[in-house]
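Assess the record.
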Amino acid sequence: MASPTLLPDPTCLHLNLLEASDTAITAIVTTTSPEAECPLCHGRTARIHSRYVRQVADLPWMGCAVRLELHVRRFFCSNQQCARQIFTERLPRVVAPYARRTTRLTDLFTLIGFALGGEAGKQLVEGMGLQASPDTLLRLIRRAPEAALSTPRVLGVDDFSFRRGRIFGTILVDLEKRIPVDLLPVKRDFAKSLLTAKMYREIKEQGYTGSSTNVGRFLAPLRASKGTPRSFKAVEPQPETMINPEEVKKKRPPTALQVARWMTFTKEQRLGWQNDFLTRLCQADPLIAQTFDLMQEFATMLRERKGERLDAWIAQVEAQEVAELKSFARGLQKDYDAVKAGLTLEWSNGQVEGQVHRLKLLKRQMYGRGGFEILRKRVLQRA
């Protein structure tokens, strides 16, 4: 990486004078190359036509804005067949044609836009003594080129929601390089939308004059009410009774959910009294003992990635009398290949979930501005 210098490109620029005011520093510079290349035919020439001055913004210095007063030249093209007879000299490492800021300042604004977005990025830019609107930062994100990525060997896929229950997307992650590969919009509520078009046409034939949006708005509460749980039965309050202090001292027994969780731990992960409790519980009920052994074996298979034991474990579950584990095993068989891959391969969807979490942070940071294109660019910028 090149060391920073006062001028954007000291190989082609010469500093003539520095002028300072209370709020800005102006550097008056001239070009030093004896000849220039025609941007159309790429022929080189030293015939100068005229000179002119460009004012461009540059990186700030100690909170003060820096402006370059560029004294550049126009040249005659030496190629008689070229359609462009006169051209201005190009400074690709300093400033783009017609630009009002240097290339390195544009790169800084682009980096700020990717990191913070529009509104937050504008505040940082102003704190540096510069000016850039949120729209400018978002526009630089759109113009930024995308890096060419190779086809991943191990691909992670997960869905996320732009608007809960309405608009969805899919993120693709290279699990080996741990970088996002692409972001795709997905329409998952297509069936619901078709049903709402169909109902809109039927009621429109009967004289309805409203829009299809209103039809969907009226149907939404009806769809939601189908999954509403029943309310609890009202119970008359019982008269208060005296609390026995001795009963308060007694330790509340663990719940079934707590015991089931202990069964998935290793012996070293459990406390001593938890191991004692499980030992007594298994001695009291053979069915619980069978469940404990099967859960321990499956947890070990999961921790040590022993997928080759899956078939034997499923057969053992089918031979036992634990109905809940039988149901669980049949569920595993419905997606057998994926389950066995998860118990065998080292890859998991954990890092994909992390990328989705980062995506949601970027989405909320954008305050609803920019749309899918900007969000995709910011997500893939890490690649």
Q: What stands out?
A: The beta strands are 13-20, 24-31, 36-37, 44-45, 48-61, 64-76, 86-88, 155-163, 167-174, 179-186. The two ends are 20 Å apart (CA to CA).
